[in-house]
Amino acid sequence: MILDELPVPIVLAPLAGGPSTPRLTAAVSEAGGLGFLAAGYLTTEALRTRLDETRARTRRPIGVNLFVPGRPAAPETVARYAAGLAEEAARAGAGLGESRFEDDEWAAKLDLLAAAPVPVVSFTFGRPPADVVERLRRAGSEVWVTVTREEEAVQAVDAGADALVVQGAEAGGHRASFVDDPADRGEGIGLLSLLQLLRHAVDVPLVASGGIATGAGIAAALAAGASAAQLGTAFLRCPEAGTTPVHRQALASPTPTAMTRAFTGRLARGIRNGFLERHSDDAPVAYPEIHHVTAPLRQAARAAGDPDLVNLWAGQAHALSREVPAGELVGLLAAETDAALRAAAARLRRP
């Protein structure tokens, strides 16, 4: 297992949508962690280019994350939500995009990773079919599946997953649930509780994800049964990340986060802003249709430096993120983790 070979028990979250870059991926791997590239939202050719660049920067293990395709939403539901955004988009001087369902070039990306395998392929938004898991394993890749509850973990292991990324409710960005339940308003299971539940339910390595920003957080996850910790928000302010200036500024603020479907039609955690507050109650489950509808509006807001209309994905501990190079951050986190574990062991030895 790759996890047994890592000098540092730190995994870079994929960070799809802009922050993921070959420089960031390679920097984390070079520092002893496991860097991931996000395949989400990229064309297959763009993913190929990024893979080539990452491999030119590091010979250490890397991973690639894929989105498992969902199902189309009812067109009238999307149209109703889009109509409610039209006036706001006009005030911002931006249009709205065309609603469309697509599978993120699922088959082509699988072909690429089967032909040019990476050490780890992880999946978000669902359980990959067992034949997909077997195909990637034959190519030489470990298969990880991101889960948010016990039943998902059991399904993933039954499909052949080598490890599970355990996403607690504290995590920033999209919730990785196999099904985005319309009744779910963001009341998920916290990471430490979920780690304990899954440690008793399945017998594969667990990678903890959600609200981890310091070595103390990593140490807590390891103590709860994880083999490593996956951090995303903690790396968003690193210079190697493709995070936009308006997002970087928000990450350094104490503004709290909330769950919303307003930006993409899928439940996700971001820093509270005007758009999130205005539209979270009326946004339907419709991913990726709403993602495409709001994309031009969000792009215009980023260009204008307007944080009110941008999806500011972040975990609950985002205010603890640091603006340092990724390799340096891995080293700092490793030292903090070691210190936290030693301090805990010392307390246990006290009479």
UniProtKB/TrEMBL annotation:
<dbReference type="GO" id="GO:0004497">
    <property type="term" value="F:monooxygenase activity"/>
</dbReference>
<dbReference type="InterPro" id="IPR004136">
    <property type="entry name" value="NMO"/>
</dbReference>
<dbReference type="InterPro" id="IPR013785">
    <property type="entry name" value="Aldolase_TIM"/>
</dbReference>
<comment type="similarity">
    <text>Belongs to the nitronate monooxygenase family. NMO class I subfamily.</text>
</comment>
<keyword id="KW-0285">Flavoprotein</keyword>
<protein>
    <recommendedName>
        <fullName>Propionate 3-nitronate monooxygenase</fullName>
    </recommendedName>
</protein>
<keyword id="KW-0288">FMN</keyword>
<dbReference type="Pfam" id="PF03060">
    <property type="entry name" value="NMO"/>
</dbReference>
<keyword id="KW-0560">Oxidoreductase</keyword>
<keyword id="KW-0503">Monooxygenase</keyword>
<keyword id="KW-0216">Detoxification</keyword>
